[in-house]
Amino acid sequence: STQEQPPQICVVGSGPAGFYTAQHLLKHHPQAHVDIYEKQLVPFGLVRFGVAPDHPEVKNVINTFTQTARSARCAFRGNVVVGRDVAVPELRAAYHAVVLSYGAEDHRALEIPGEELPGVFSARAFVGWYNGLPENRELAPDLSCDTAVILGQGNVALDVARILLTPPEHLEKTDITEAALGVLRQSRVKTVWIVGRRGPLQVAFTIKRSPARGRGSQNCCFEQPRRSQGQRTLPARHRPPAPGASAFSEAPSRCCHHQTGDGQQAFAWQSPGWRQVSCYSKIPAFSSLPTPARCCPRSPQQGVGEAARAVPTGDTEDLPCGLVLSSVGYKSRPIDPSVPFDPKLGVIPNMEGRVVDVPGLYCSGWVKRGPTGVIATTMTDSFLTGQMLLQDLKTGLLPPGPRPGYAAIEALLSSRGVRPVSFSDWEKLDAEEVSRGKGAGKPREKLLDPQEMLGLLGR
Ligand code: FAD
After folding, report:
1. Which residue stretches does the UniProt record annotate as biased composition, category Basic and acidic residues (predicted)?
2. How many CB atoms lie within 10 A of CB 188?
């Protein structure tokens, strides 16, 4: 039975979900062997390619992941795209269990006209660009404009606003790519509008992410609403700041810190009175960038608190800008026709990490619960998935008998001309990045070109 055989387990994706699931399995089963497959040449998922460069402390989790990867019972198999180089049924045949932790690699489209125009990007691509994601290294956003608009008001929107507004000298000692830094040094963006559909109490970002918290935040301000004067009614019309006005520093746009009645903190991008800008899909937006994008003023709200929803009024308003970044969420892709997928929710249907109707198949992280939540949330849900898997192993629900594990997959990959990279390969690339960063006082200068990386590995 599997109890007598060292269980061979495969994890797909080396972001926080993959690593935390592996960590749990290795810790709680003394014989388990875990192979972590990753499509990139480098590990750590969004910790490397998502977390903002000016939040280096968040990346400390890499130390824990490195310990896991160095375990004799764990192996990193980078440069393998599951679903293309190897199919999920092939993995299921080779391993006792397969855990899908491949994150959310797409962005949600706004589905409004003009989204494909130059000057309109997903925040996901912009984040990938400044963080050195190989597929986004050619993005080259034109920052010669005065005003940028970010559509969406979650943490990613805030990260992007902060990066756009932080003086480049404050980013020079971070792991932001030199190429991005070069473009940001030339940037003429002074005003960033964060456009959201919902009211100030529903914004989805946390204070830590606000541009007003950044070191170079002279362009931003927090202000307490003057409660004694009351929150006045919304102004009849909303106007963008005069050309050259600094973002968030003067009316009508303010980042406002608001203490709610129940003691909770809330923040709002505020005009005098609680006022926001909204964008609706029926607006023919971005018709001829860099000429104006069209947005409509916030409409009356239905419902209260979390349930509040904005209702379009039909009024529209032009918001002149040269760059539009849509930041309305990430989205998982289906990985393989054999794996159930809920296209509406963008997740793999599962019960506490057990993929519905597919014994031996599990999921964790953003592909399990949707693209929300921080690394700590991902850790908790990955541990839970690991727990379910070990429970199934114990109760004999996983296939009995030995499984070949990587030996079988290695043969398949080799017959397909795929050459995986190991964790020690990553450690060589890591050392190279660290040494390239040293001269500039950066923690690392990321390698951007997979061909160059393979060359450095002697391939
Ligand atoms: P991911 O981190 O995306 O990992 C998935 C991995 O799977 C990736 O390495 C990917 O390359 C790989 N993969 C995908 N498809 C395949 C395939 N077909 N075959 C093989 N491998 C594949 N959280 C914080 O706590 N603090 C922050 O400051 C913070 N900042 C963030 C900033 C941004 C821009 C974003 C988007 C998220 C941020 N988060 C932050 C959230 C955090 O990054 C996520 O909670 C976490 O990364 C989700 O982990 P995951 O493993 O599910 O997905």
Report:
1. 432-449
2. 11
User: What is the DSSP annotation of 310-325?
Assistant: E---S--EEE--SEEE
Q: How far apart are the C-alpha atoms of 117 and 60, rounded to whole Å?
A: 38
Q: Which two tokens stand for residue 449?
A: 């070109």
Please list every protein residue whose CB sits less than 6 Å from any atom of ligand 1: 12-18, 37-40, 45-46, 50-51, 55, 58, 81-83, 101-103, 105, 127, 156, 159, 330, 335, 365-366, 373-375, 378
Question: Cα separation of 158 and 209, whole Å?
Answer: 6
Minimal CA–CA distance to 37: which of 121, 116, 99, 104?
A: 99
* Alpha carbons 55 and 149: distance in angstroms, whole number: 23
List, in order, residues 6 or more apart from 226 with CB less than 8 Å away. none
CA angle 400, 403, 407 (to 5 degrees): 180
Q: Which atom of ligand 1 is nearest to the CA of 377?
A: 45
Q: Are 42 and 424 in contact (CB under 8 A)?
A: no
Q: For residue 21, how far is its CA from the centre of ligand 1 (angstroms)?
A: 14
Round to whole Å and give the CA distance between 329 and 121: 13
pLDDT tens figures, 355-389: 999 999 999 999 999 999 999 999 999 999 999 99
Amino acid letter for position 245? A
Alpha helices in 317-405 (DSSP H): 366-369, 375-394
Query: What is the torsional sign of CA 227, 228, 233, 235?
Result: negative
pTM of the full structure: 0.83
